[in-house]
Amino acid sequence: MSRFDIPANIVEQTRLAHSIFLLTVNAPAIMDSANPGQFCMLEVQDDNSRDPLLRRPLSIYKTGSNGKISFLYKEVGKGTRLLSKRRPGEIIRVLGPLGQGFRLIHDCPSILVGGGLGVASLLLLAQRIKQPHRLIVLIGAKNASEIPTIEDFSRLTRYLHIITEDGSLGQRGVITELLNQTLQKITDMAQIYTCGPWSMMKAVYHMARKRNIPCQVSLEAAMACGTGLCLGCAVPKSNSQGFLHVCQEGPVFDADQVHWG
Ligand SMILES: Cc1cc2nc3c(=O)[nH]c(=O)nc-3n(C[C@H](O)[C@H](O)[C@H](O)COP(=O)(O)OP(=O)(O)OC[C@H]3O[C@@H](n4cnc5c(N)ncnc54)[C@H](O)[C@@H]3O)c2cc1C
Ligand code: FES
User: What is the pTM of this model?
Assistant: First the structure.
């Protein structure tokens, strides 16, 4: 699989909510070979500094026309804070596309379950689902400001359901309630794709397993290299059979492969 380490021109850096940003860079080579669920490693510091040395992994949120790719990210620490200071016209090194993305299953309803910024790895997937009339998107967050890109999903499906813990957008409650309501209405075999906090994905997996519905999960792990060299991104396999390396074998796995603890 091709991957590229390129100096990419920043074309947009927009603050969408208090700590959530959309970064768009010009990276035609990466755009051409990007698949849903794959990610890139981004150099966050400006040219004058080597701190932090390590790049930060971000999912490919969307691909646009003219070679553009966008990342939806939350400022949580030093790296993402520095990234948020980068401005259009500056150059940023981007390595990607990396990892194994989602396997698209087309002949059944697709249920996408995103928690908070987990939606960052689901938009490209929603765009590539070949039967949009069988695409169901469920998004949950603490409050409305955590999910500022709902319109990107509402353009793709009539079956978009939102739930927030404080009721500031959509139904009030947690995403597993929404999934439970959805699964009660599904009579065919379906495929679940999910990304979000670990505890949410674990709950989604257990609900899927109870109904024998296959479930793919996109995992996050601390990453130093992003390319399989440092072995720092290991998570335990199910049944104590060693480790999965999230950057190379993932970030997307069949949920059955993961030891959920
Ligand atoms: C494959 C992959 C894809 C990812 N895609 C995205 C994406 O599309 N958008 C996005 O916003 N993030 C994404 N992440 C997470 C992102 O890489 C981290 O948030 C980022 O590296 C943190 O770097 P930092 O230097 O700002 O924070 P650090 O200094 O590394 O950490 C600061 C603090 O934030 C905590 N922290 C770290 N990661 C997270 C997190 N994900 N959520 C909440 N707290 C965290 C740390 O535990 C620490 O307490 C992805 C991670 C992986 C592995
Ligand atoms: S991050 Fe280095 S092996 Fe996965």
Answer: 0.95
